[in-house]
Amino acid sequence: MSHRLKAVLVAAAGLLLLSACTGPKAEEKPVAGAGPAATTTATTQPSGPLRVAVISHGTAGDAFWNVVKNGAEEAGKQLGVQVEYNSDGDPGNQAKLVDNAVAQQVGGLVVSMANPEALKTSIENAVRAGIPVITINSGEDKSAGYGALTHVGQNETIAGEEAGKKFKELGKKKLLCVVHEAGNVGQAQRCDGAKTGFSGDVQTLQVDISNPTDAESRIRGAVQTDSALDAVLTLNSQVAARAVSAIKGVGSQAQVGTFDLNTDVVSAIKSGDVVFAVDQQQYEQGYLPVQFLKLYRDNANVVGGGKPVLTGPDLVDKSTVDTVGQYVQRGTR
After folding, report:
1. 101, 117 in Cβ contact below 8 A?
2. In this predicted model, what pLDDT tens digit does every residue of 242-276 receive, in sequence order?
3. Which residues pair with 139 in a beta bridge?
4. 51 in the Ramachandran plot: left (φ > 0), alpha (ψ -120 to 50) or beta?
5. Which residues contact 318 (CB under 8 A, 6 or more apart)?
6. Which of 73, 99, 233, 255 reaches 20 to 30 Å from 241, CA-CA?
7. What sign results for the dihedral spanned by CA atoms 124, 125, 130, 133?
């Protein structure tokens, strides 16, 4: 065999060995302006910034929803997503906000559903228009049926049960559950859950969060009329402050527990005026859906496996309030 033939065979064997030891090449990203390949990629991959409309049922000045907004906007900054937050406590007006977002062809929708039936048509229209929807906070049991990708929030019944159990552990006998938004299914679920967890006498009281003075007056009247009431559960941090004031005003010995945190509740837990707060970590309810919609658009990821993504409940009391309180102060809890 000639020296030239040997050299050729050795070179060929080397090439075969090299190809056998390397896996399939990763697809090279086309260079911008590099002909047809670049055009094909642009038409099959999403491009440009994602635009997400976050539409809640929050009322003006509600500290809870300010934290949700903070979470959504921070996620937008970190991920390069354009986030537009709007809210309206009237279900019909909230549905119109959803319709407007659909008409503007946003890239994703995040919607709280305190009144699911009022939003049903609007959300289903968004899904039919090809807009991915994630529901938050309320309406967990209707979310999948309306076509949403997933639901982000706490299970209100479970959260209510935990609150009821806590009052039971504290030895309370009669509980007043204060509802501040008429027609809000989540609040009804909280009170129902509290009844289950408390296993005692539970009464409900309807107040209007938009009229704090009247809310305080109604709570004061309830505890003054019924001296057996030794526990009051409010479903909102701002109503909690009114409950504390009402109870002090009539010299009642009832203790207050609440849903949700703000700086007043943190101070009240430290002073003993509020014994605990059920924290649903609403910052996550703003932050996570923006992240999920980005993943869905860029990588077709769906989070939750058909189940809701739970952000709570997390019970905050004197043992944990110092740690959590610092984040409440900065608007992220």
Report:
1. no
2. 999 999 999 999 999 999 999 999 999 999 999 99
3. none
4. beta
5. 269, 270, 272
6. 73
7. negative
Which residues, including other chains, have CB under 8 Å from residue 162's CB and lie 6 or more apart? 193, 197, 278, 313, 315
- Asked if residue 254 lies in contact with residue 228, where contact means CB atoms within 8 angstroms, the answer is no
Bond preceding residue 313 cis, omega within 30 of 0: yes
Residue position matching structure tokens 């209510």:
160
Q: CA–CA separation, 262 vs 67, rounded Å?
A: 10
Q: Which is it for the CA torsion 239, 240, 246, 247, positive or negative? A: positive
* Residues facing 274 on adjacent strands: 256
Q: State both tokens at 74.
A: 């921070």
**Degrees, nearest 5: CA angle 120-145-65:** 60
- The C-alpha atoms of residue 135 and residue 146 are separated, in whole angstroms, by 10
pLDDT in tens, 12-65: 444 443 344 444 444 444 333 333 333 323 334 456 899 999 999 998 778 899
Q: pLDDT value at position 7?
A: 46
Identify residue 134 by its one-letter amino acid code.
I
Pick from 272, 279, 283, 284: nearest CA to 308: 284
Question: Any idea which residue has 């479970």 for tokens?
Answer: 158
Report how far residue 87's alpha carbon sits from residue 161's, in angstroms, rounded to the nearest whole number.
29
Phi then psi dihedrals of residue 274, to 5 deg = -120, 130
Q: What are 222's two structure tokens?
A: 């309830």
Q: C-alpha distances in angstroms, 231 versus 101, 173, 178, 240, 263?
A: 43, 8, 11, 12, 22
State how far the Cα of 81 lies from the Cα of 278, in Å rounded to an integer. Answer: 30
Beta-sheet strands, E only, within the chain: 51-56, 82-87, 108-112, 133-136, 150-153, 174-179, 201-206, 231-234, 255-259, 274-279, 309-310, 314-316
* CA pair distance 293, 298, nearest whole angstrom: 8
